[in-house]
Structure formats: C-alpha cells, structure tokens
Amino acid sequence: MSLLSVRDLRLSFGGLTVVNGVSFDLEPAEILAVIGPNGAGKTSAFNCVTGVYRPQRGSVTVDGRPITGLPPSRIAGLGLARTFQNLRLFPAMSAEDNVRAGLHRATRQALWDVLLHTPRYRRSERESLEQARHWLDVAGYEGDPGQPAGTLPYGEQRRVELARALAAGPRVLLLDEPAAGLNHAERSGLVRLIREVRSTGVAVLMIEHDMGLVLELADRVAVLDRGRKIADGPPDEIRTDQAVIDAYLGDADAAA
Amino acid sequence: MKRALLAFAAVATLPVFTISPYVLNMAATAGIFVMLAAGLYIVVGYCGLLDLGFAAFFAIGAYTSGILATRFELPLVATLPAVLCATVLAGIVIGGPTLRLRSDYLAIVTLGFGEIVRVTATRLEITGGPTGIYGIPPLAADPVAFFYLVLVVTALALTGAARLGRSKLGRAWQYVREDEDAAEATGISTYRVKLAAYVLGSVWGGLAGVLFASQLSAISPASFTFLQSALVLVAVVLGAARNITGVILAAAFVAVTPELLRAFPDARYFLFGVLLVVVMLLRHRRRATA
Amino acid sequence: MSQLIWNGLFTGSFYALVALGYSMVYGIIRLLNFAHGDVYMLGAFIGYYCLTLLSGVTSGLPALLIVLVVAMLATGLAGVGIERLAYRPLRQAPRLAVLITAVGVSFSLEYGVRLIAGADPKVYPVRLDGQPVELLGARLTAEQLVLVAVAFVLMGALHTLVMRTRAGRAMRAIAADPKAAHLSGIEVGQVIARVFFLGSALAGAAGVMAGAYYGRIEFLMGFVIGLKAFTAAVIGGIGNLPGAMLGGLALGLLESFGTGLTGGEWRDVFAFGCLIVFLVARPQGILGEKAVVRM
What ipTM is given for this predicted complex? Predict the structure, then answer.
C-alpha cells in the first residue's frame, strides 16, 4: 500500500476536461516530479489531491484511506502540506506568525488558559514561537522573523512559505513550482533543503518546469499532457521517451 | 499594557471631578458601546467577517436577562448563565449554516437576522411587544457604582478580546482574514474558526446587552435597530487599523458624538453619514499616496 | 386567492425594479450598494414634491406618469452622482471600506431627506382609487393595472437595452471580465456610470409607484425594500437580470401568500427567512448554475 495513491482522477469545468484519468503512487522518502506543458492539468491534479477541487471521478487515498471529498484542512491534517504556485502568505502578519499557521494543529490552547494567561498558555506560546523560528532557519530564512511577510523580498517569501509547510510536520510535501523566480544561489539552497527533507522519510511531490532541477532531484517523473499521463518512470527513461519529446516539441520549457 | 493601565486609571478618576448623573450615565453608555465594539472587533477586525446585524446579539442578551429577571424576580446577575447559553446558541444557529457562504452574502444574512430578531421582539408577547420590558432590576443602584461596574466589565472584555487575538485561535482568525484558502490548505478548519469568532463575538454582545438592560431598566425593540448595528460597525471600522486601541477611541467617539450633536436633532445622523463617507474617502486617499 | 396573486404581483414588481439595480451594480463592480433602497425612497419623495407642484395643473394618472419620468431622471442623476463622489475614488480600496462608505451614503440620504421633509410620513397626493373592476375574481383599479404594465415595460426595456445594444454589450463585457474589457478599449468608468443611472432610475420609478400604491411615504421606507430587493436578486441569482425580475416577482408572491397564511405582522420575518433559507440551500439562485469548484 502506497503512502499516497491517486487513481483514475478526472476533473472537468463545464465542458472542459482538465484532468482525465490520471493515476500515480508515491512512497515514503520518494521524490516524484510532475512535468508537462502549460495547461496540462498539473496544478488542477494537485488541487484535487489537496481537496481544493473535488474530482468528478477517481480516488485519492493516504495509507489506503480515501480522502476525496474531505475539506482541505482535514487533508492537511492527514499529513499533506503544500506550497502554492503564486505564493499565498498572510501578508500583514509576521514571518514567524505565518509559520505558526503550520503549527496550528499541533498547538493545544484552552480558552481559559488564553483568557487568564496561565503558565500553560505562556509555555505553549513560547514553544510555538521557538518552533516557528526553527523552521524558518531550516528553510534558510535570513530576515527578521517579526517582519510582515508581505514586505519581504521574493526569495524570503518563498522560504517562509516552505517553512510554513514544513512546520506542519507533513508526510507528503507538495510543492507547486518551488524554483520559479529563484536565483542560482537560492535554487541550490532549495535542492539541499528538498534532499534534507526527503532524508527524514518525507515524500515529495513537486510540479516543476525547470528540467535541470527535475533531473537532478527526482526519483521518478510523471509527464502530463492535456489532462492525461503520457509517461511515468525514472528521469533517464523520461528524457528519451518519444511521447514526451512529442508533447514538448515547440514548447519553450523543453529548452530549459 | 502599561498604557492600557494608565488609560484605565485615568478614566477611573472621572467621579472625582464630577458625580453628575448625566456625565456618568454618558460615560457608562460609551463604556457599553466600547464593549459591543470589542465583541464585533473579534468578528470583523480579527476574522474579517462582515456582520451587519450585531445588535441582534445585544438584543438577545438584554431580553434574556430582562425577561428572566422580571418574570422570576431574579437579580440580574443570576441571569448571566442563561444569557451565556442564549447567545452561544444564537451564534451557532445563525452562524452554523451561513458561515459557509461567501463573505458579502454573510453580510446580508446577518442584516436579515438582525431584522428578524427585532421584528420578533416587537410581535411576541413574552418580549412585551413594541413597548418592551420595564422594571428590570439594576446591577448597581448608585450611578457611581454602576459607572465603576461598567468600567471594570468593559476593561475585562477588552483585555479578553486582545488576549484572544494573541492566541492560537486569534492567529487563526487573522489567517482567515488574510487568505482563507491558504489558511484552509495549512490545516486550519476555517469554518470552525469562523464559527468560534462568531460565537465569541455574540457572547461579548450579549453581556453588553445585560449592562444595557441594567442601565436603562427598560428595553424595547427601538434600541436594537439596524442603526445600532451600523454604529457599532462604524466604530470598529473607523478604529480598526487592525488595532484594538483605535477601536476603543472610535467607539467612544461614535457613542458620544450623536449625544453632543443633540443640539441639532434633525441633522445629527445626516452629518454622521456624511462624516463617515468623508473619513473613508480621506483615509483611502492617504493610503493611495503613501 | 386571485387577490393574493395580484397583491403579490404589485409588490413583486416593485421589488423587481429595485432588485434590477442592485443586481446590475453587483454584477459590474461587485458592490453591495447599500444605499440603493434609499434611492427608491428618494424617488418617492421627488415624486411627492413634483405631484404637489402639479396639483393645480393636472392630476390622476397623467400627472403620475409625467412625474414618473421626472423622478426617474432625477434619481438616475443622483445615482451617477453617488457613484462619482463616494464609490469611484474607492475603486481599489478593500471591499469592507466601500461597503462602509455605502452605509454612510445610506445614512446621508435617509437623514438628509428627513432634514428637508421631516420625520412624519407624508400622504401621497395621488390616489389610485378609480372605479374598481372585477378581474379573475380580484378587485383592481385601472390605474393599478397601468402601473404594473409600466413596471413590466420598464423591465422589458432594460432587458432589450442590455442584450441588444452596444452599451449593453459593454456592460456585459465588464461584468464578465473588467480587465479584459478595459484592454479592449471600453470606457469602464463611463459604463459604470450608465449602470448606476439605469439602476437608480428604475429604483426611483419603483419609489413613485410604491408611493401611489401604498399612499404613504417616509424617509426610512428604503431600508426594508433594499433588503428585500437584495433577497430578490439572490433568489434570482445575483448579477443575473432576468433572475432579478423573476426573483422580485417570486418574493412578492411568496410574501403575499405567506401573509395570507400567517398574518401581515410576520411578513418581513417571512421574507428574510426566505432569504436565509435560499442563501444556504441554493446560493446560486434559481437561474444560476451550480459550480463545480469548492472555493
């Protein structure tokens, strides 16, 4: 039984089918990259897994337990944490408070403790703050943890979002184009971080356009084209797969 | 924190300068209003949910305590558990189904709910119909004592709201306000968090209603109109540069201004409306150039 | 029974006229124009003063129709003015800020009219109590029938304008995608102003008609109808114009029958109850499509 298993997923909006019969599995400590031309349905498939969209057909299971139809927060609670293609931080709140969102489920605070500021409340606040800073460090964040996230430079915002996902203690980390917009140094930091995360047994599912990064990191690559999976295998196989080459022909991303 | 204590101490010295019942009464009115604003701040300020019918919870608190106290000849304090239950229940009944809706729909539903509560109070026999309920026993007979009671309760309500804002739950409210989808994806049950804000806000509003019933000793549907809801909301929004201190000042301002404009009885709400528009326009213009 | 249907149609057509403006404005700039019900009230008062002026010259139905046109023009312009002064500068502001501004506009209109006209209700200087005729078992006057006919003509005219003309196409384009509409050269500001003109004029017309129908007006009369018009717009699917008309009529009829069953005292509770039930059970309205996407 796989950690995450997606079977025959189908999603359409009105008459437009964006995901059409996609299946894949993910094992602990595995890095699976999902690639494909723009509009291939990668992010839509992602959103079906995380519960943002409800697929018309197919199933998603975690440890064999079906999760389709659960609200995204419940799915996150089962150990799936994600980042977004276009950063979704809480802009007016500090970097550390952003990361604390990931700790929400693990933090226990009773109403009375909060209202009376009991030692238990103080301890819990202190601990969550320490943990938030710890995850910011892990993600390579270098700025002031108290600064509002919306005012941070782009690279730092990416790190805050990663730290938020890591703080939730996921078993599967879903990254939607994690390297987009990063400079060279930031990109190698990201590679190190993903390897480190994987070494603790976390599975990583990532959508990525940067083929160099995919070939460097991924254990397995799944290729989507127009809503269908056209290939799935180790990077070396994918690179020479005729169907993949055809799908990418004329696509600027193939050159990357 | 120090500033809050100083402000508290400063207001507490008021009876040293005057024991005019008129002034103390006005101060108590402002205090009750500040407490209402603190309750609505939980809903609107922290959680970003627009509530246009907040007076309904104020009414539910006031009527629950008023009815129990007059029918069963109870002291007002003894009605508090019932008020808590009633407001929590009302918060769940109205928030439960509607908090799944889009935010601007929520605004209208709460508006409709506010009207339903008011009209129901006007029609039912147990609420005394249009004349309402009178002869409610006061919490404190002496104006000075009542002033201090309101001061303490309001201070506690404000402290409570501020402490909630600095807790796990309060941060979750702010996540919802900032980006609901991202909050949900991070594992926060946004629905439950919103419901918690709504219910706690309604409890604050209901407790303010008890103070109100005690102050006037008589309540009628005329005190719980949309105007009342709108005024509280205005206080919260005017003061809410996301800061509870601003809300206190704005609430006191909103509570006292119509009183000061009493000299122009016909014009006061007109001026108030114009002022509201002007303030919003100016504030936005300042932000745009900043 | 037949009488209930007619009563429902009367009030329903007022709701529909007001709901159209609500729905149009929401459709185009996603604003709950809180002051919209007060524009209806403004129409009723403008009609009142015009009718009083005209009372020596002409009266009855002809006077009412002339005044209707005048009031529509005046409220239309008022709507444009409100948009220009209060809403346009806040186009980029957070929604909450705009909504608060709308509440401020609503206060200003209500209490501004009160300042001029006083707080007491006014008796409308035109009565629709001509010879009643029996029609399908209901008692109606010819004037009442004319009013309903006018309401339907106005709705039909609006529908044609939005669906058949260039100006209407521009409105629909902005409602569908403001950015793309702007890029394709549509004068967004101008179109929004037109929408406010049309919506406010219809509300003004409804105000005059309601004044004549009920015979009494007062400065707070717009509050409840604003809420009901919104209910109607939601029942029909907000942003959807045929839906708003249908929703208005449906709400009028529902209310009429609800009143027949439970008595007039509970009419408003019944209407708002409908709103809440509708929003919870079918937020996309009668004519709306059910969306696949959860968020």
Answer: 0.90
